[in-house]
Structures are given as C-alpha cells and as structure tokens.
C-alpha cells in the first residue's frame, strides 16, 4: 500500500470514530480543521442552519466522505448532494442549491486562467473562420438553475445586500452563471436562452453548429443577445 493510500485510510479511520489509544486528540484536530474548511467554503449555508448545527452536519459528512486528496480547497464537492438527502432539506428546501452556488464560487475562484474571446475579435475573423470556431466556457464558469431565489438569498448574507426578510424563499427561481472576472467572483443572471447557449459551448462543436441547434428552439434575436451577453462578460474561450 502506498504512503498516500495509508494516509487516506488513517484519516478515514479517525473520522469514523475508530481512533485508537492516544489518537483522540489527533482525530479531534482533523475534525476541527475540516469543519473550518467547510465554514470557509459554505458561510451562507452555515448562517442558514446555525453554527452548531452546521458543525454537526460537517462532522457527519466528513465521517462518511473523508478527504481523498490533501487539497482542502477541493474538499466539499459532495456536500450539496449530502444536504439534499438530509432531513434539513425538508425544512430548508433551498439550502442544497445555496450550497451548490457557494461551491461554484469556490471552483470559480480557484479555476485556471484563460483568455476570453471578445466580441470585437470574433467579428474581425473571416466568416469561414468564425463559423468554424469551437468555443468553450471559460474554466471559471459554472451554471446553476434553481427553483428558488438562491442568488438573492446569497446576496442577503453579504455586506450591503438586501434584508433576508425581504426575500420570499418560495419565490421565483433563478438561473445564472458564476464566473471569475479578474480576482472577483461574480454572478450573471441568465434566461433560458443564455443557459442553453452556455451549455452548448463545449469546445467540440463549431459555432455554426451551436447556433443552428439553438435556432431550433429559440428566436435568432434571443440567441444573438445571449451570445453578446456571454462575450461581454468574458464567459467564452476558444
């Protein structure tokens, strides 16, 4: 067994409550470190359920899903799915999507850099080159469609944001892109055309193929507006 595998096995054993004699302090330190990692990645989720309850959720999750890599910034991808299956989701049905939004923000912040395609650069290409271009979403871009106003709920927990009491958790759902602009992580509201367009840009389909596919469902003006919006925000790369 490799050293990395032995370390993973040891961490999993300690988190599961099977710490041996003299290992209790070490196990407690590991749990504490993971709880703080979750608090840093999911501050709004913690605020919604309360600090003590969130700590218990984090400990339960870490026992069932111990970290497999020594990179804590990557730890937590499965927490939203864990919350969806937890009893707390019945009381706070929007909690899972809030956690998904926070994880997308984490991914956006640590995503690789890439040069975005500008509208001017796209227009400057010869038509044959332009329609053959294979565009992809910027590495920092994540998409979230929710039946709940999760972006508004997240904003209500930020300095200068709206009061949480002003937001109806059962109100209209929200769709949007999470992406990084410079060093800042931002949200861009999207309509169904914008969501469909960004999902279609997978880096493997030529631009004319993407537009033709979208043209079967949406108006050309809507597609053009959605493409212009994505280019202005720097959401596409080539």
Keywords:
single chain; 238 residues; alpha+beta; Outer Surface Protein A, domain 3; 2 domains; 3-stranded antiparallel sheet; 13 helices; disordered N terminus
Report a brief summary of the structure.
This protein is an alpha+beta fold. It has 13 helices and six strands. Residues 1-7 and 10-14 have low confidence and may be disordered.
The parts where pLDDT drops under 50 for at least 5 residues are 1-7, 10-14
Taken in chain order, the helices and strands follow as HHHHHHHHHEEHEEHEHHE
Mean pLDDT: 87
Strand content: 5-15%
- Helix run count: 13
Question: Roughly what percent helix?
Answer: 40-55%
What's the count of strands? 6
What kind of sheet is the major sheet?
3 strands, antiparallel
**Overall SS class:** alpha+beta
In angstroms, what is the radius of gyration? 21 Å
Overall geometry: elongated
CATH topology annotation of the largest domain:
Outer Surface Protein A, domain 3
Distance between the termini: 42 Å
Class of the largest domain in CATH?
Answer: Alpha Beta
Arrangement of strands in the largest sheet: 5-1-6
The number of distinct structural domains comes to 2
The CATH architecture category of the largest domain equals: Alpha-Beta Complex
């Amino acid at each position: 067994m490799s050293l990395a595998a032995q370390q993973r096995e040891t961490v999993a054993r300690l988190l599961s409550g099977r710490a041996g004699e003299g290992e209790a302090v070490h196990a407690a330190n590991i749990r504490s470190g993971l709880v703080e990692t979750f608090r840093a990645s999911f501050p709004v989720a913690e605020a919604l359920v309360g600090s003590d309850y969130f700590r218990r959720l984090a400990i339960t999750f870490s026992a069932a899903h111990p970290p497999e890599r020594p990179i804590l910034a990557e730890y937590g991808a499965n927490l939203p799915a864990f919350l969806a299956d937890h009893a707390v989701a019945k009381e706070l049905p929007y909690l899972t999507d809030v956690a998904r939004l926070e994880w997308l923000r984490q991914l956006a912040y640590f995503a690789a850099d890439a040069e975005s395609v500008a509208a001017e650069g796209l227009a400057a290409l010869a038509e044959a080159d332009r329609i053959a271009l294979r565009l992809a979403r910027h590495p920092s871009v994540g998409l979230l469609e929710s039946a709940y106003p999760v972006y508004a709920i997240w904003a209500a927990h930020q300095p200068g944001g709206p009061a949480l009491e002003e937001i109806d958790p059962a109100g209209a759902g929200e769709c949007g892109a999470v992406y990084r602009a410079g060093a800042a992580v931002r949200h861009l509201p999207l309509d169904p055309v914008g969501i469909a367009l960004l999902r279609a840009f997978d880096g493997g389909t030529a631009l004319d193929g993407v537009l033709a596919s979208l043209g079967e469902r949406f108006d050309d003006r809507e597609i053009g507006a959605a493409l212009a919006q994505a280019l202005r925000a720097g959401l596409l790369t080539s």
